[in-house]
Amino acid sequence: MNYGVILNVLGGLLRFLAAIMLVPLFVALYYGDSLYPFLAAIIITGLTGILLSYYYKATDEWKTREGFAIVAFGWLAAAIFGSIPFMVDGFSPINAIFESMSGFTTTGATVLLDIEAHSRSILFWRSMIQWIGGMGIIMLFIAILPKLGVAGRQLFRAEAPGPTEDKIKPRIRETAKILWLVYVFISMLEVVALLLAKMSLYDAVTHTFTTMACGGFSPYSQSVAAFNSPLIEGIITLFMFISGANFALHYRTLYTDRQSLLKDDEFKFYSLVTVIATLLLTFSLWSDMGETVFTAFRYAVFQVVSIITTTGFATADFNLWADSAKIVLLAVMFIGGCAGSTSGGIKVVRFLLLLKYAQRALFKSIHPRAVKPIKLNNKTVPDDVMQAIVSFVVIYFMIFAISTGLLSLMGIDIISSITSSIATLGNIGPGFGLVGPMANFAAIPFVGKIVLIANMWIGRLEVFTVIVMLTPEFWKR
Fold first, then answer.
1. What is the pTM of this model?
2. Residue 303's closest CA among 113, 437, 133, 193?
3. Which listed site, 62, 177, 448, 471, has its alpha carbon 20 to 30 Å from 183?
4. Contact 291, 285 (CB under 8 A)
5. For range 397-407, the mean pLDDT
6. Which of 78, 316, 106 is CA-nearest to residue 212?
7. Are 91 and 138 within 8 A, CB to CB?
8. What is the Cα–Cα distance from 266 to 245, expressed in whole angstroms?
9. Beta-bridge partner residues of 376
């Protein structure tokens, strides 16, 4: 393990983060908010980055282990240093780190009791870090830092979501740049759409940040319900759905093949699950809650898309819905969006391949000598990929069970323990019970917040990037 390389790159990442903090500083200046939270953060983060880069020199000798360590500790460092504005603003250290980690990992779980009481610049930073974390802070770092060169491939592999690496260009830096450009382009479209729907520029930008990132932070305690506008809900629903699909496919749809999304097996399955869940929830709200068909569909389509994409916005307090409605939402919490999207969760492609794997097992029980490969988009999926998917799901549910058990031991009721665990591990945001959509995570005990912070970190980095560092072999020279 080359520790000098890791610390040098982390230094560059912190300098980059300090530069990003200039944006909320100008927002604070514009709105007349206190500049101290961001001035302090810029100075501390920037100086730390300069010192790390000065004392530790980079080399071209990179291995997979260094890539994993840089990505894992890079996200952790971003959350810690990104929490400085919150601390200066009056947050306790644990709450500040929780909010920052929730932002960068696009989880959307909050500890704020009165969101509107905070300054516009702090809430802007809270939304902006979700947008940065959506496509990936390391991915952005790769896109703008040419000196990483070939070494960027190790970072890309460690951060890119999904079971397979989806490159658009042979050079990783070009791939990262294109993905970010597509991300920015679609974000601009949403800002314009929300402005046409009569949102203010501030609200349009902050909600675009958190929609495109599948993050869910809102400057309002009532989330999107604060606007009470079917048009705004429709626009946000559309862009949440877009953000839950593979951005590499968005690029190909825009520039190479207009049918790329429609041809993709994962996107078709993602759309099918969304439609089925929406119809089931609509029926539940109509039959069990007495809503009109239109109102039931309005709430259902928004909430299903919000949960399956792990965005976490809310237009109603689904904590008060009937159990049949809650079961539908709980089911899609475990699924997540597509690989290569900004959403969290297990990912649709893994569920699709596991279903194909189960189907093959049933087929081979009848025809034991038959050869039946598992295919995705007419390509055979290698056995090592299937083994990795099975391992991922097993470890994922183990972490979920352990964190649920730990929270239960702290006196938290079982419903809140289960849903806060899956909501943070899947980077969803709200759950049920104590952590419902109109509530927050402030009541979670100190140790419980540490568990959930770890969940968010592990879930955003697709489990393996963090868990592999727990093995003794990882740290051997």
1. 0.91
2. 437
3. 62
4. yes
5. 96
6. 106
7. no
8. 9
9. 379
